[in-house]
Amino acid sequence: MKITNAAFVRSVSDLSDLPEESFPEIVFAGRSNVGKSSLLNSLTGRKGLAKTSSTPGKTRLINYFLLNDNLYFVDIPGYGYAAVSHAEKDAWGRLLAGYVGDRAAIALVVLLLDSRHPAMKSDRDMMDFLAYHDRPYGIVLTKDDKLTQKERTHAKRATASCALNAEFIVSYSSVSGKGKNELLDHFDRYL
Ligand SMILES: Nc1nc2c(ncn2[C@@H]2O[C@H](COP(=O)(O)OP(=O)(O)OP(=O)(O)O)[C@@H](O)[C@H]2O)c(=O)[nH]1
Ligand SMILES: [Mg+2]
Question: What domain count does the chain have?
Answer without folding.
Answer: 1
